[in-house]
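Dear colleague,

Thank you for sharing your sequence with our group. We've completed the structure prediction you requested, and as agreed, I am returning the results in plain text so they can be pasted directly into your records. Please verify that the sequence below matches your submission; if there's any discrepancy, let me know and we will rerun it promptly.
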Amino acid sequence: MENTRFQLAPQGRCTGQLDPPGDKSISHRAIMLASLAQGTSEIRGLLPSGDCLATLEAFRNMGVQVHWLAPDRLRVHGAGLHGLQAPDGTLDMGNSGTAMRLLAGILCAQAFASTLSGDASLNARPMQRIADPLQAMGADITLSVAGTAPLEIRPCETLDAIDYVLPVASAQVKSCLLLAGLYAKGRTCITEPVRCRDHTENMLHTFSCAIEREDRRVCLQGGGELAATEIDIPGDLSSAAFFIVGSLISQDSHLTVKNVGINPTRTGALEILRQMGAKIDIRNERNYGEEPVADLVVTSSSLHGIDIPQNLVVDAIDEFPILFIAAACAKGITQLNGAKELRTKESDRIHTMVSGLQTLGIRAEERPDGVTITGGEFGAGTVDSGGDHRVAMAFAMASLAASGTITVADTGAVATSFPGFVESATQLGLLFE
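Please find the predicted structure tokens below.
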């Protein structure tokens, strides 16, 4: 992966209109289910990032035919649940944990062997959390000694349905098991400790899968088929969150975010920011299929520190790097607990963010499952993103409230989730040098 850096002058702005790129989580799922459906599907608003292109390339390697109609529009000729072909070599998932974990659920039911691997960051992330329940269903899957990729998957005689209680809230593990459940004998049910994002359930329903949902429990019957359809993908709230916070912390800024997904399992960050005093208005609410969409209007705000409510942690788990930047700009102290999952992302996001904040002059302390951040003023300095796309974009936004130039090292991974980030940021007023 290209090793690049951002260098930003202080006191830029974040004002204007943002059309965020397509939602990454939904894009992955749309590619996967369209590839497994009977017939031809059309996907509009797809995120053509490195992560999503890795998913697409994996299915092309297994015989699925796709045609690009536009940079964010794709036609997929589905192979059906049992029409995939043996891939030519290892399937490289790049930097994408979503792609690796969800695809494992599909591949363990195929009549051919396969291997899933990724870059150094992905190959260090925990995979035992999917291997254990898949093996309980009868899958033949092995990991490294450390419980990480590469994943070696071999054909099994049959997959049996499972009734599984997730030990930790994880949409990726839930989705992996639901996709395996499409092939399993019987009724697969997953119970979550707390509700987490439900894009897979929404997408399965859109592709005509009979899926049952009740509170924190979801079930599906194996042995059916998926029917091709048309999908419109909303803008990615996780990508928009960087600019939302950027507008909140920069002077005299007014930002309109168009056509962004506001799925209630994803809006924890908006609620946290509102509790900190953020002025964020939700307008023009509507639906793209099963997914709620709206426009957001954001205005510069005086933020204050809070104790982040435990019930919002899961719904904001991807946004904490930029929420830490908001906390550093807030008056008073912000406390986060119960977020140990942040240590298993593309980097150890608790450690990477706290180190960067300290480098820039902010009082921040890390704990095993959280942080304490005391609001202050960002100084100049060079921070290391740890190769983590969300950390890199978060510290770019810190320049809006800094007294000097901020340099962010190791930013090549930004293209995995937001390939147009620098262009969008520059257009809105950030000062890249």
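Summary note from our side: The chain has twelve helices and 23 strands.

Kind regards,
the structure core
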